[in-house]
Request: fold
Amino acid sequence: MKIVTTIVLAGLMLVARADAQAPATTNAALRYWMAFALMKDPPSDQATMELFDRVASGASAWDEAKLGKFVDDNREALQIMQRATKLPSCDWGLEYELGPNTPIAHLAKARVLGRLNGVEAARLDARGERASAVDVWLAGIRFSQHVANGGTLISLLSARLSLSPALKSLARAAPRLDTSERQQVEAALRAIPESGFDWADAMKREAEVLATAKKRDPKITAPMPNQSSVDKVANDVRAERKQLLDALSPASGAQRGR
Amino acid sequence: MDDLEAKLREFRPRRPATIPDERLQLLRGPIWVAAVAAIAAVMLIASWIERPRPQPAPAATLGALTALALESPDQLDAALTRMSGTLLPDVHDALGPARQPKESQ
Reply:
């Protein structure tokens, strides 16, 4: 009897231990929603947005007086987001069966958080914390991939708004990066498609969503995106990625050294 | 004689000056002030009417945002940004001192 009791107790302890060590979620989308909930939106007026975008893409210098407060206010949200970008998957759980009525509110939140991430990287770079700045820029690249994941064209277009500033800023910073940082950036770039995202897959999903919605309600009408417009955006992102790769290449460094 | 006539022709008939009206003089200041105020009010109203109104944010749905991205791609970024501020309540405000439940005494 004692032996049976011991075996049962040992079994229960093993089960309890397994529960305690249950793996954390691998779905980054859940963490991103936590970050969105904690995010404090900066003012959305045109002038503020333009300043954010210029600084995030490296076209303007960091302005602590105007932007520092917004980064400080969103420190927790940004940290959650940056950690989440390292998770292996991102499933937004979109209800595509609703067709054009599918809620995609995450794209708006993601746009603002992506912009804040870009200006945080600019601040770190301005402070001379280059390695941390590179980490944040790379988090921005991974975040854009997660935002686009499983999405239709609008997801990719929104994600592109976060990807492009990171690519441009890294291209500007490339001459100052050390070998290890260059390798890090190059690895991150090789991990994404040449044109930034899988545009063909998004167009296919766009058509599928429309077809499914039409089956449910034949009255639904929604225009299919123009392929040539999509190709143009894809080519722009391809050029931005290539520009960064060129800036990272040893030949580029040799030319600078001359 | 001719000189005298020429001299006299130099004179022209003139209306005599009006006799000063003290009541009108007293009103002159306020009339100007009222006129300036009226012009300022008209300009203010005109500028308010002509002021560009912020575009209402589209619905946060696949159809609405895709249509915006296809028809006005340059407006997508601004629309997403405006929309973001309206989607979730600010938890910092919600947990602020004004809304915290009072401790039982």
